[in-house]
Request: fold
Amino acid sequence: MPSRQKQLLFSVSGLFGFSCALTAAVATGLPFWLNGTVLCRTGAELVNATGPELDKFLGGLSYGLFTGERVKQCGLGGRPSRFSFFPDLLSAIPAGLHVTVIFFCGVVILFSSVATGFFFFNAFGRPYETLQGPMGLYLWTFICCLCSCLVMILFASEVKLHHLSERIANFNEVTFVFQTYSERYDRSFWLFFLVFNLHGLNILLIRLAGVQFPFQETKESDLSGGAADLMY
Reply:
């Protein structure tokens, strides 16, 4: 491939990598990972509420990885309050899993920035080491792609398997019992899905630039060497 075209592809990949780093950093800090409603089950059962009457017992819940907001409603109006995961909710949530999600968010931010630097270095410099050349481009991009996928999987498991919304809604609650009524992933979660897709697109752009997949050339040379040995 002509050098100018390769520079263009690597520059576009570098811009994608920078966008991923910036997007991941913003998404990690925003309190918009999940939005849902919680039902005051105690109040609804007391009056045997059904249908439209349930609206009087439906409160709101919205949170991210660090802070959030909840509105408890048990028929007497809403009770809005804000909360923080650290240190308030550490005893109520699966802390190890939650910290792991934050850790992989940091890995995505870090290695997206590293990948950005290597893309521009390969576009305008002369890479001479394995991790700065083609191997590095695939390595950093694959790590970012994998970690962004892990962020979504781990956060989804924290929400669905560990019932994170119910734990938050019932935290420090003595009188009433709340249960999840509806949940939907909010913009920050889908921003990480965008990051995952952009890094996948970068892998395709690396291949379009004429860079072989790692170990492919070695495998091909081994096969050709084996064929030559058979001829003799």
User: Anything to note?
Assistant: The longest helix spans residues 95-124. The longest strand covers residues 178-185.
